[in-house]
Design brief:
The chain is of the alpha+beta class. The chain contains five helices and seven strands, in the order E-E-E-H-H-E-E-E-H-H-E-H. It has one domain: Aminopeptidase, CATH 3.40.630. A hairpin with a 3-residue loop joins strand 4 and strand 5.
């Protein structure tokens, strides 16, 4: 399933048209391909996550693995459900990484629709400011941290 367009040189360009969630049992088969896409985002977590903890969370169905693809995987995302004492249920985007973001960012509407079907009323993400501009989401807070250990 592809959405194709033609550029000025009359070459057919196929745009990604699939956002799909990976069943936990399929994570081991895809991990070698997905891990390099996620590692830059994992590195930005400041030690909160590692490739090992992400893989474990996916394999145990604590997290969801998303693939944004056409004939190849262009991006991968990791989400988790969060419940709050007020009853609020959200889908938190923990990690996302890939290439040529403008080619696949529109597929987040598929993730949003899925989150609604799962009873979520919000999607939340902690990330760099560029994400809010690309996704068209409002910035509600910023994250701050201070290292307490030297070096």
């Amino acid at each position: 399933m592809f959405s194709c367009s033609t550029d000025s040189e009359k070459q057919t360009l196929c745009q990604p048209c699939s956002a799909e969630i990976v069943p936990p049992g399929n994570v081991p088969d895809l991990w070698a391909e997905v891990r390099p896409l996620l590692e830059p985002a994992i590195d930005l977590t400041g030690g909160r996550m590692s490739a090992r903890t992400v893989f474990s969370g996916l394999a145990l169905a604590q997290y969801q693995l998303w693939l944004l693809r056409n004939e190849t995987i262009l991006a991968a995302g990791v989400t988790e459900f969060r419940g709050y004492p007020t009853g609020l249920r959200t889908l938190a985007v923990l990690l996302i990484g890939g290439n040529d973001m403008r080619d696949w960012v529109h597929l987040w509407s598929d993730v949003e629709a899925w989150a609604k079907r799962q009873g979520c009323t919000k999607i939340e993400i902690s990330g760099r400011r560029g994400w809010s501009r690309m996704l068209g989401w409002k910035e509600t807070t910023i994250d701050m941290e201070k290292d307490l250990i030297d070096g």
